[in-house]
């Protein structure tokens, strides 16, 4: 019901770590009964790990004539390109697996910008769970009542790779808690 509430409120909902396969997908789509269009990505060999969903409010999709899903790394990296008379929108949904080395995380982020649907001239949303901190305020330790984020090399790579993708009249990303 939580996801259904999000779909009613927002045009685009991106889910990470769905940990589900085709059976759950069908049940969910029946539950929302045509109010949204769902695009899923998972690795059939590792359904219990990762998994992504890009869910669009049906009324929002009517502005677009073409929809293409790019399942770039099944269950970890997907992009949905929407094109229509008013323009194009690409939505990237990312789940970087925890426990990867710094080099593996950098290679993963490089895969995003090397994707065939990645175009700096197109309105692009990059969403997801990158499993690294960009700012000390990205994590909160409830037991000690303090912010506990530890920005590392990955956040610098992220900032450099996506430096062209900031909002109009806003010099910073909105990926960081302190910037929201």
Structure notes:
There is one protein chain. The chain is of the alpha+beta class and 180 residues long. It is built from 5 helices and 9 strands; from the N terminus they run H-E-H-E-E-H-E-E-E-H-E-E-E-H. It has a 4-stranded mixed sheet with strand order 4-5-6-7, with no helix packed on it. Helix 4 runs parallel beside helix 5 (153-161). The longest helix is centred in the middle third of the chain and has 13 residues, at 102-114. The radius of gyration is 17 Å and the shape is globular.
Distinctive features:
single chain; 180 residues; four-stranded mixed β-sheet; globular; disordered C terminus
Please identify the structural class as seen in this structure: alpha+beta
Radius of gyration: 17 Å
Termini separation comes to 26 Å
Taking the sheet with the most strands, its summary is:
4 strands, mixed
| Mean pLDDT level | 80
Q: Say how many strands there are.
A: 9
**Helix proportion:** 25-40%
